[in-house]
Specification:
The chain contains 6 helices and 5 strands; from the N terminus they run βαβαββαααβα. It is α/β, with parallel strands linked by helices. The chain has a 5-stranded mixed beta sheet.
Length: 160
């Protein structure tokens, strides 16, 4: 399993993915998971997908996503839902958004079979602000959602 953080930790709640990876490391959660911070380069996902596209690989992507929900809300969804779920265009922050990165990965034949996105509604996306109280307070709930996604995937793909 690979868990990716997409976002800028110096840009308020856009750093939620990096904060979650740090929490997973500190608390030694999800042993065996490869934790990868791709920063603001969503296209870097394509390189990490290479060679890991088969049914044995689960890819979880954590990103701040403006979805029209309450700040700190988190939802899991499939790559095909990225354009429908995410209202905020990441082009200004990441160069390419997740939907564009997934389309490119599919185009070059490296889109994994098992990908889930954990979108977290930001409250504040401004330089040097750190996580908002809403998003920081939601980290335990977001970790529960990640664990639920892992458990559901293990139930669907026993032995992987």
């Amino acid at each position: 399993m690979k868990i990716y953080a997409v976002g800028n930790s110096f840009y308020g709640d856009d750093g939620v993915g990096a904060a979650l990876l740090e929490r997973i490391r500190e608390e030694e959660l999800l042993p065996g998971a490869e934790l990868i911070d791709v920063g603001t380069d969503a296209l870097a996902l394509i390189e990490h997908f290479r060679g890991c596209t088969g049914p044995e690989w689960l890819h979880l992507i954590i990103d701040a996503a403006k979805m029209g929900s309450a700040p700190g809300s988190a939802v899991a969804f499939a790559p095909a839902q990225a354009r429908l779920r995410i209202r905020w265009d990441h082009l200004s922050l990441h160069g390419f958004g997740l939907a564009e990165s997934f389309a490119m990965a599919a185009g070059v034949g490296v889109m994994p079979e098992r990908v889930r996105i954990i979108g977290v509604e930001p409250a504040v996306v401004a330089i040097d602000t750190g996580l908002s109280a809403e998003v920081a307070g939601a980290l335990p709930r977001i970790l529960q959602l990640i664990n639920a996604e892992v458990e559901a995937d293990e139930a669907d793909h026993p032995g992987h």
